[in-house]
């Protein structure tokens, strides 16, 4: 997947190269149709002269009929080729941009918004997909007027000279059309993207909107860019209407001028009646800027859409290395001087932390302390602005993607169930590393998901769309997927928040128990969860304030305040080596 930034011309050029044979065929068909269209007036003129002279004209009449039939066939071919070329180009652009979005990671959705991204991938990609076809057809559209002027010159130089007096004005009109259409189309597409993004947010928060009774206010919020959309749309129509009106004003005058000169030349016996007919038809072809207006307008819109796709491609994709992890590494996780900014705010500031291999560390802190961001950095769903994250002594940025994703399993508070069936969802993994059915079922039992999955209509073969599940059931499926994945590092980012107390206890018995060999990093919002971990890292002010067991840290009032509590721990914690200030020495400490 190319990750370098391209211009919109480069993007359309890449799409054209992807369907190069179809572009060439469409251009060839267009040129042939133009050539046939240029031959037809000459053939009609010759047939007319023969008929007026009472000479045999059958052959020329048949030539005219053959040219008409050829034009019909070429028009049909042009329609089919244009449609398939647009479809292939759109599919190419969607694959390229979608692949880049997935390669770049979550930060692309954060920058553009999910709704705007969908608008770009659906609407803008379809509009940009017409660009290669418009480019191929534009050559033929330009060849028509040029060839018609040349044919007028062949008939008589005065005919071409009359037409060329108005040609610069037509050229200026077309240039202004392309410029103004591009600006209006860009504004229209931006407004569309904002509406789509606001709509996606409203759909995602539909329950909140319904519960709050703010449907009218949120409808107005979604439709707030509508006046801008309407203004940009009217501007596009005004631009095209003005160009068409100006062209219609100039073109008949040129046509009339050519016909008048041809009539004068006829009276002087320099042209035949057939030549006058041909000159009239060539004048129509030469002034036929309507086709050019349509082609240029379509190309301008496709270029504006391609520019919006290029904005997405400008986001750099995550780079990977080629180093390997030590085969017997225990899964030791280390963060060295990690700083990360989000929304213009420094969330993590020079953070140091070590999680020994095979142990469990709970991340504790107030809302906004950076727990989920730290978990994302540990799983390389995001990269730090400074510092580095290492797994068994190897920086995550130096690992190949296949190795990185094979060795790090992750579960989230709102897991996305992406497979066609429940079993596909639980088996979601890199190609060639899908877990066996037996391992999937064992993982489901560990996550306490097996019972409710078996009660589904088709068990593990039930389509995800037909499998109703609560938030807790979805979390259990996400946990089962992480357990089935395996690897040396397991990251649970608030993945237990929707579980009931009994199920949480059963799952944490496994996650925090000695049977799990992987290193475990858990974001904890409940004191009971933190109490089950071997060690707790307390995040405060962008740094690790202290590392120790939950029981040891509980002695600190500020730590108890994180959970809104003032009493003793509600669950026993395993004995530790004492709470250690984050600034102290030792492998678990951070500064």
Short structural summary:
The chain has 591 residues and is α/β, with parallel strands linked by helices. 60% of the residues lie in helices and 11% in strands.
Q: Report the end-to-end length measured between terminal Cα atoms.
A: 40 Å
Proportion of beta-strand residues: 5-15%
Please give the radius of gyration in angstroms.
Answer: 35 Å
Q: Got a strand count? A: 11
Low-confidence stretches: 1-7, 567-591
Query: Helix share of residues?
Result: 55-70%
Q: What's the total helix number?
A: 23
Describe the structure.
With 591 residues, the protein is α/β, with parallel strands linked by helices. It has a seven-stranded mixed sheet, sandwiched between helices. It has a four-stranded antiparallel sheet with strand order 2-1-4-5, covered by helices on one side. Helix 7 packs antiparallel against helix 11, helix 8 runs antiparallel to helix 11 and helix 17 crosses helix 19.
């Amino acid at each position: 997947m190319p990750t370098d930034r391209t211009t919109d011309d480069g993007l359309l050029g890449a799409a054209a190269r992807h369907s190069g044979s179809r572009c060439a065929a469409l251009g060839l068909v267009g040129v042939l149709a133009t050539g046939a269209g240029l031959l037809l007036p000459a053939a009609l003129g010759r047939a007319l002269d023969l008929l007026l002279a009472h000479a045999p004209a059958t052959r020329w009449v048949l030539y005219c009929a053959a040219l008409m039939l050829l034009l019909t066939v070429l028009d049909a071919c042009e329609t089919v080729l244009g449609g398939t070329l647009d479809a292939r180009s759109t599919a190419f652009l969607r694959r390229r941009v979608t692949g880049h979005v997935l390669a770049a990671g979550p930060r692309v959705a954060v920058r553009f918004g999910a709704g705007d991204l969908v608008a770009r991938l659906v609407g803008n990609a379809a509009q940009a997909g017409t660009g290669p076809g418009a480019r191929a057809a534009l050559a033929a559209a330009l060849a028509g007027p040029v060839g018609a002027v040349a044919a007028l010159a062949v008939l008589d130089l005065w005919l071409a000279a009359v037409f060329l007096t108005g040609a610069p004005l037509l050229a200026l009109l077309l240039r202004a059309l392309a410029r103004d259409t591009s600006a209006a189309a860009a504004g229209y597409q931006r407004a569309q993207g904002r509406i789509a993004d606001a709509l996606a947010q409203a759909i995602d928060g539909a329950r909140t909107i319904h519960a709050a009774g703010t449907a009218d206010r949120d409808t107005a919020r979604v439709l707030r860019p509508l006046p801008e959309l309407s203004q940009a749309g009217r501007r596009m129509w005004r631009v095209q209407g003005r160009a068409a009106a100006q062209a219609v004003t100039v073109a008949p005058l040129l046509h009339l001028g050519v016909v008048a000169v041809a009539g004068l030349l006829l009276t002087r016996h320099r042209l035949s009646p057939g030549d006058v007919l041909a000159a009239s038809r060539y004048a129509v072809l030469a002034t036929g800027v309507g086709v050019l207006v349509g082609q240029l307008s379509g190309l301008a819109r496709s270029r504006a859409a391609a520019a919006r796709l290029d904005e997405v491609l400008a986001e750099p994709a995550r780079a990977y290395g080629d180093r390997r992890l030590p085969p017997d590494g225990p899964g030791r996780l280390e963060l060295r001087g990690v700083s990360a900014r989000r929304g213009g705010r420094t969330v993590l500031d020079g953070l140091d932390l070590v999680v020994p291999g095979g142990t469990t560390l709970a991340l504790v802190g107030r809302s906004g302390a950076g727990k989920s961001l730290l978990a994302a950095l540990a799983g390389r769903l995001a990269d730090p602005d400074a510092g580095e994250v290492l797994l068994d002594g190897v920086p995550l940025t130096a690992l190949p993607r296949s190795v990185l994703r094979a060795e790090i399993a992750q579960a989230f508070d709102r897991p996305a169930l992406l497979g066609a069936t429940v079993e596909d969802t639980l088996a979601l993994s890199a190609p060639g590393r899908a877990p066996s059915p037996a391992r999937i079922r064992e993982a489901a039992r560990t996550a306490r998901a097996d019972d409710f999955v078996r009660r589904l209509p088709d068990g593990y073969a039930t389509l995800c769309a037909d499998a109703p599940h609560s938030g807790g059931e979805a979390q259990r499926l996400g946990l089962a997927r992480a357990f089935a994945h395996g690897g040396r590092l397991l990251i649970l980012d608030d993945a237990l928040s929707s579980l009931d107390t009994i199920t949480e206890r059963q799952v944490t018995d496994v996650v925090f128990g000695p049977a799990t060999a992987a290193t475990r990093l858990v974001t904890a919002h409940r004191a009971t969860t933190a109490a089950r971990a071997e060690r707790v890292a307390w995040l405060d002010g962008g740094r690790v304030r202290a590392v120790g067991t939950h029981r040891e840290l509980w002695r600190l009032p500020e730590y108890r305040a994180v959970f809104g509590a003032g009493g003793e721990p509600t669950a026993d914690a395993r004995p530790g080596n004492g709470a250690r200030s984050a600034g102290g020495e030792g492998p678990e400490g951070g500064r």
